[in-house]
Amino acid sequence: MARPTLAPADAAKDLTGWSVSSGDRPAIERALKFVDFNTAFAFMTRVALKAETMDHHPEWSNVYNRVTVLLTTHDAGGVTDLDTTMARFIDDAAKALGGE
Ligand SMILES: C[C@H](O)[C@H](O)[C@H]1CNC2=NC(N)=NC(=O)C2=N1
Fold it and tell me: Is 30 helix (H, G, I), strand (E, B) or coil?
């Protein structure tokens, strides 16, 4: 049974720093900035390990100390509770590493 999807605006409003993706797919996005590349990559490592345990992976890019993250559930064709769970984990990991 496919997971129910959420309106991206509804998903984003309950989260810190997330917005509706400007792209053509229903998704939420957040841009993060860290003190340096090492810290940005430490953040990505923590999220990567969580993504593997959840079997739910972000679409992201990294330029030096910046990481932009897009979350959507490919199998559902939209934003689901997997994305909001991952978003909350990302917010906690970013906060722990001084990201903003
Ligand atoms: C085969 C594997 O379990 C699926 O492709 C998983 C992997 N990670 C995933 N990540 C995301 N964001 N959406 C998915 O639908 C998804 N599906």
Answer: strand
